[in-house]
Specification:
By secondary structure, this protein is of the alpha+beta class. It is built from six helices and 28 strands.
Length: 409
C-alpha cells in the first residue's frame, strides 16, 4: 500500500505542486477579503470563520509535508534494493514489438523488445564495431575489426565488401567513415593503415548495382567528416590541420573538398581558420549546399562513450545520480529513484586506479522510440528493458550487448 502511494505521488508530483499553489492563492485571497471585511460566510457558529482558516492552513501544511517527504524519499532515502534483485527473467510484459539490434561480441543480434523473434543476423570471427542501415532500410553495413560486410535484410544474405589482409605485426588497419548515399545505391568508406613510421588512408565508393569498388584519389593525407548532398551526387569531406595559436592566432584550418561520385573529380571549395576542431556545417549550407544528414541517424555502435543521462523527445529522463541510483524524471519535474546500481572492480587493475569501488555495471542507457521504455546494457545482467514509470525491469538477453539501434523511416 505504501509503495503504491509513493508511486502515485511520484508520478503525479506536478499535480501536487499545482494544487499546493492553488491552495496558497486561495488562502491569500481569503485572508485579504477577511481583512477588508468583505468576506461573507454563513455562520454555523461563532467560530466558523476561524475553522475555515484553520482548515486551509492545515491543508497547506499537509501538502508541504507530503512534498517534503517525497523529496526526501527520492533524493536522500536509500532505495532498499538493487537492479539484480528487481529484474524479471523476460520482457513479455512489454507492449511494444519494435525490433532492436545490438552488438554481442562477434555477432549482430536482432530481437523484438518483447522478447519475440530473436535471431543472429550476422555471426563473425572478430568483434563487431559498428553497423549502418541503408536509408531505405533494405541493407545493413557491418563493420568489424577486419571486414566490411553487406547484409540484405530481406533474406539475411551477407557478402564481404572489403577485408584486411594479414599484415606485419607492427602495422594496424581500420575501416571507418562508412556512409550511405541518400538513394541507398552506393556508399563511401575509408581504410587506414599505420605503423610507428608511416601511415596512409585509402578512400572508396562501392556501387550496389554492379558490386564494384572504385578508389577515390585523395587530394590530401587524411579526409574526415563525410557528408552526401541530398541529391546523392556529391560527397563532401574535410581535412583539418592543427596550427600553432601563438604564431597564427587560431588553432585549426579546415579545408572542405567536393567529390563528384560520377566523375570522381575532387575540388577544394572552402578553406578557413577556426578555433574549433570540427568543421562547421553552416559553411556548406551558406553555399546553398543541402546536406543529407539523416545518414547518421541510421548508424549505430561507432560511438562507444558511456551515456548515463538520456532525455526522451517528450521530456522524460532516465539517468544515474551521484550516488549511483538509477532515476526517472517524468515531464521535466520531479526525480524518482528506481534502483541502486552496483559497481565492479576492473580485473587486473591496480587498486589506486579504482574509483569509488570500481566502475558502474551499466555501460549504456538509451530511450526506445516512443519514449515509454528504455534499453540498458548491464555488465552482469545483459540487455535489459525498463519501464521507468512503473519501475518494471526485464531481461531481454542474458549476454552483454552494446550499440543498440533500430531502423525507422
Amino acid at each position: 500500500m505504501m509503495n503504491e502511494l509513493l508511486n502515485f505521488l511520484n508520478n503525479n508530483f506536478e499535480t501536487i505542486l499545482v494544487l499546493n499553489a492553488l491552495w496558497v492563492i486561495a488562502l491569500g485571497v481569503t485572508f485579504a477579503f477577511a481583512r477588508l471585511r468583505q468576506l461573507t460566510v454563513r455562520k454555523v457558529g461563532d467560530f466558523t470563520s476561524d475553522i475555515f482558516f484553520l482548515f486551509l492552513a492545515g491543508l497547506e501544511i499537509c501538502v508541504l509535508l507530503v512534498s517534503g517527504y517525497v523529496y526526501w524519499f527520492n533524493y536522500k532515502h536509500s532505495v532498499p534494493f538493487t537492479m539484480e534483485e528487481k529484474v524479471l527473467s523476460n520482457t513479455h510484459w512489454v507492449k511494444d514489438d519494435l525490433t532492436v539490434y545490438y552488438m554481442a561480441g562477434n555477432d549482430l543480434v536482432a530481437t523484438q523488445v518483447n522478447g519475440d523473434n530473436k535471431k543472429y543476423i550476422y555471426e563473425g570471427t572478430e568483434r563487431v564495431r559498428e553497423y549502418h542501415f541503408s536509408p531505405d532500410g533494405r541493407y545493413i553495413l557491418i563493420v568489424t575489426f577486419k571486414k566490411l560486410v553487406l547484409l540484405d535484410r530481406r533474406d539475411d544474405h551477407s557478402e564481404t565488401v572489403d577485408s584486411m589482409a594479414e599484415a606485419a605485426e607492427d602495422v594496424s588497419s581500420l575501416i571507418s567513415n562508412v556512409l550511405w548515399s541518400p538513394d541507398s545505391q552506393k556508399f563511401f568508406y575509408s581504410v587506414a593503415h599505420w605503423s610507428k613510421i608511416s601511415s596512409n588512408t585509402n578512400y572508396y565508393l562501392w556501387y550496389l548495382k554492379d558490386k564494384t569498388k572504385t578508389p577515390i584519389k585523395s587530394p590530401t593525407r587524411k579526409l574526415t567528416s563525410p557528408y552526401w548532398d541530398t541529391a546523392g551526387q556529391n560527397l563532401y569531406l574535410v581535412e583539418t590541420e592543427t596550427m600553432l595559436p601563438k604564431a597564427h592566432g587560431y588553432l585549426f584550418v579546415h579545408q572542405i573538398y567536393k567529390i563528384d561520385s560520377a566523375t570522381l573529380t575532387t575540388e577544394l571549395i572552402d578553406d578557413y581558420p577556426s578555433q574549433k576542431a570540427l568543421a562547421s556545417e553552416d559553411r556548406l549550407e551558406a553555399k546553398k549546399i543541402k546536406l543529407f544528414k539523416d545518414a547518421h541517424r541510421y548508424s549505430f555502435g561507432a560511438d562507444e562513450s558511456v551515456v548515463l543521462r538520456w532525455r526522451s523527445p517528450s521530456g522524460r529522463e532516465v539517468g544515474l545520480d551521484d550516488e549511483d541510483y538509477l532515476y526517472y524524471v517524468n515531464n521535466q519535474w520531479f526525480r524518482k529513484r528506481l534502483f541502486h546500481v552496483e559497481r565492479e572492480a576492473l580485473e587486473g587493475d591496480i587498486r589506486y586506479h579504482q574509483f569509488e569501488g570500481g566502475v558502474l555495471a551499466i555501460k549504456q542507457l538509451k530511450w526506445l522510440p516512443g519514449g515509454r521504455y528504455a534499453i540498458l546494457a548491464h555488465k552482469k545482467l545483459g540487455v535489459l528493458i525498463l519501464d521507468p514509470k512503473s519501475g518494471k525491469l526485464g531481461q531481454l538477453a542474458g549476454m552483454f550487448g552494446s550499440g543498440f539501434g533500430w531502423y525507422e523511416k
